[in-house]
# Entry
Amino acid sequence: MRSRWVHEHRFPDPVALAHALAGEVKVDLEEAVAARGTASLVLSGGRTPRRFLQQLSNEPLDWSRVWITLADERWVDIASEDSNERLVRETLLTGRAAAARFVGLKNPAPVPEAGAEWAWRALSRVPRPYDVVVLGMGEDGHTASLLPGSLALARALDVSAPPGTVGVHAVQVAHPRITLNLAALLDARRVILHIEGVSKWQAYQRALEGGSVAEMPVRAILQQKEVPVDVYWAP
# Structure
């Protein structure tokens, strides 16, 4: 069941998607800077966004007025290949976009639960509502690090909670994580769900059918009626 809040954009291949998505995000950020003097962008990690981030790094924009942070992070050193911060620094914060102001989630705390408040204080510098939040989705229906079966999932999905960050442990992932909670992810002017591949499109279709949010947390994004969601997909 499609919500009038969800708009789909399909592309023939990931290259075409990356070009279109980078251009769209650039326009959103440009309009935010013109209207409010600053802009904020929340990004996701993993393999899927690499091409998009590389394309976005070359977009002409007053990047010095743009704040960037992450929807979630693995609790690993930023030098690790598993670090989302490392991905963003290597693919986006180069060239023109090197002037952007980046705030990461990883900090010296030994575990993400201990670092959650620290991370949220650091994020207080990033203007909210976020102008654009770009999320991914796993084949299991997770988005950000709202992971099915994780002990912190119910707390992270509680829309009555204030925006914040939550430490996450789940058996299906190699590293503990920190994630923006649902309230923070939806404290946004626009959410974009970026997915690639047939299997993820099928998972997205299952999520649209409705059902348990705990089973497929991305449903919390797709079913809400506060923030418009654009789905960008390529096979």
User: Anything to note?
Assistant: The chain has a mean pLDDT of 97. The chain has one domain: 6-234.
